[in-house]
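[agent] plan:
  1. take the single chain provided in the ticket
  2. run structure prediction with default settings
  3. attach structure tokens to the ticket
  4. add a short note for the reviewer (M.T.)
[agent] executing step 1
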Amino acid sequence: MKVKTSLLSATSNSNYHTLSATPDTVHWGFFDKNLKPALTIDSGDLVYVETVTHHAGDAPDVLMDDGIEAIYQAIPEDDRKPGPHLLTGPIEVRGAKPGDVLEVQILSLEPRLPYGSNLAAPWGYLADDFNNEERVTIYKLDTARQWLTAEFAYDYPGDYNINGRILQPEEVERVKALQNVQVPARLHVGTIGVAPAENGPIDTTPPDTHGGNVDNWQIGAGATMFYPVHTDGALLSLGDSHLAQGNGELSGTGVEASLNCLIRVVLRKDLSLSLPVLETEDAWMIHAFDPELDEAVRIGSHETLKFLETMFGMSREDSYSYLSTTADIHITQVVNQNKGIHITLPKKSFLPKT
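[agent] step 2 finished; step 3 output follows
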């Protein structure tokens, strides 16, 4: 057997589309298999997608422009639910059927504005230890897009219970924060996913087999995500972009920002996956989710055993040994209802058969 070094498909179709973020092309807080597509494409097409952060109201003077403000003004606060995330889409892929896999190549990410917001949120992992104090820290990305520095911070007035609430600078006391500290830039898309199989609006908060709020900071330029398709057309949506984040996303958020994304979307009828898989130049990462971290590890481990058997013809026993000696199990995030893990398999450990 020849060792496969990549899941990526060869594509020749290169139709190009632009999907701007407008009140008519976004949906706030939910996935829904019954949503009308904002765009319909063919397999292999390129799509330039604008994503808008749901945290622009934390500092509208630096996180909001006219286009973002128009979206916020058009969507009533009561309609921004059940989840917090503002998503662009959905994108319908012609011919996609349940059981297929959608390959999403992230070709480039560009900041719409060079600022982002981190919230110590009421759903953060240590919220109780901080007496549920909600603090916002605004970061700025440098021109080389290598590092972020804190511009200011403030204590959130009242409860953070309105998605996208706009706070003007005069409403809070801005203070200096994180002086002489820089944060590594990790531009990525926190929430990308296809429509779930269930009917009705599905909360964007918990990631699941459809992808969604996976929050792996390695879902950035040069990476490719693979999603099991659950409904006709796949109905891909994306948003919740970040300038930075650590594994765990401990306070409840990354550095939330608006990014413009160039992606290529390929329909795969030659793959079978039941959980989202990330491919980078050096590794594969199999994601798994559950309210209990132990169970997420168990689910992900079983899926990885199947991945090794399918990709490399490894026996179950050999796969189990390989997982223990080579694979790294990482905590992706612990704050999105379903806790997330990803199991990393280094490509260099697989040698061509002689």
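[agent] step 4 note for reviewer: The chain has two domains: 16-116+185-277, 287-349.
[agent] ticket updated
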